[in-house]
Amino acid sequence: MSEKKITSEALTIGEVHSSLREGHTTATALAEAHLAAIATHDGEIGSFLTVTRERALAKAAQIDRLVEKGDPLPPLAGVPVGIKDVLMTAGERTTAGSKFLDKFVAPYDATSVARLEAAGAVCLGKLNCDEFAMGSSNENSAFYPVHNPRDTTRVPGGSSGGSAASVAAGFAVATLGSDTGGSIRQPASFCGVVGVLPTYGRVSRYGLIAFASSLDHVGPLANTVEDAATVLEVISGRDPLDSTSVAAPVPNFAAECGREVKGLRVGLPKEYFAPGLDDETRAAIERQVDGLRAAGCEIVEITLPHTEYAIPVYYIVATAEASANLARFDGVRYTSRSAQVKTLADMYRKSRDEGFGAEVKRRILLGTYVLSAGYYDAYYRKAQQVRALLLRDFQQAFTQVDAIVTPVTPTPAFKLGEKTGDPMEMYLSDIYTVTANLVGVPGISLPCGNNQQGLPLGIQVLGKHFDEATVLRLASAIERQQK
Amino acid sequence: MKVTEKDVTYVADLANLELTPDESQRMVADLNSILGHMDQLNRLDTSGVEPLAELVSSFAPKGGEDFAYAQRADEVRPGLSREAALANAPDTDGTCFRVPKVIER
Questions:
Q1: ipTM for the complex?
Q2: Which domain holds residue A195?
Q3: What is the pTM assigned to this prediction?
Q4: B80–A108 C-beta distance less than 8 A
């Protein structure tokens, strides 16, 4: 096993802030150091698809002028970040990991990106991902797979594999990812970093290339719970450009880190600890739960009885929405058109055939099938009904507990190529993450130790709608008790 | 319910996808495996359950009333410029997207 980490001690946002303030470094020097690390070491990891050097250095220079003048620094001043390549960055190549968009240059910024940069973040580039965010291993990138920095023979998880791997490798202090069925939390778990799924409606989706609109979330990845909380606060809040974003007040999330957890009621859903869960993962989570109990949490066994139906519901709803969303890639507007076309129908078909990879085609076909006449009621409507039952499960559970603790994945990171033969086997590995997307609750994945092979293990905390505060408070306690 | 190659061809046609014979065979196998798994939903009685098609109003404090702000005033606002909208197009005439001829004469 070869481990790639460029910095012996990963930087935190707080450390960037104080070293800029105290003059130990400049934003420009920090950006240059990270860009150099990417140039030297990312060949083996493959986490970046595009490096945005000029954009980074222009922003860094702007931050250095603020420091020189002694002006107050915004919360992410000089913090080197990376952006999953499903989020638009004005004037920069934005591919969604697809050959279809190989030459696409985004005409505007995603709101989450604009907010990060307005808060002083230095954007180093665009991060590799599964094509259109469809995958659990990053092996569906049309360009190259990402390797897990903790063991380069293994996958980093997906679909935000580049977002997790670049933080784990020390290429970026924080990154943005997107999570439709686990795509932030599962790679965070595989790479040993922190990833947050915000409540549906908390973070604007404007400028996110849509996969499944009722399930898509934008969220942060970072090395610590506090850093993830700081980034989350920056990107949260109502955006008039996304009518599903919600005008709920945004609390000071970072202030939740370090708060007492005494008296919190923590639920353990028995369905999430059923056979099929890796033994070492189970033991690692039990150790953290013991720690929470010792810290004064009340641990309650709960039931989420419809859990076993979550995967079928998810893959019906997600593919149905994807088949509609991806209809826009037709050879007219977005860079790619087959050279072999004579008629309009030809243009649609051949452009889509040449532009999409196998998994994207599979999901479009499946989604079209479950929506087609004769099957709509049996699959799509049925799935939406069971989705309502899943929401009821959570509403019921949250009358008994303040938060829920579960595994993130059934096993730690698997090997590249291990699951590419059977799509259903890959889908089943999303069992512990898809439900949060189906019901819209917030969650976090954070490390809880390593297994005997040295691979990171993860733990998930889920909370009530718009109660990221409690999720972060508990996660921070779990992080602390490991020190 | 078993998906046949004819079904796959029909659905591919609906989705404007062109599949090679190899791809098409692989999709028959994959769809059958995936749909087989999905059929377990039929074990559940869902009669009388309202389908959940939209999430936000289901956890809105006042049944959706709080989201009145999600409707914007009907007024003209600046959008993407024509130039920016056309910039990524494979073919334009400078003012419109250009596509292969639709109507033969």
A1: 0.93
A2: 13-263
A3: 0.96
A4: yes
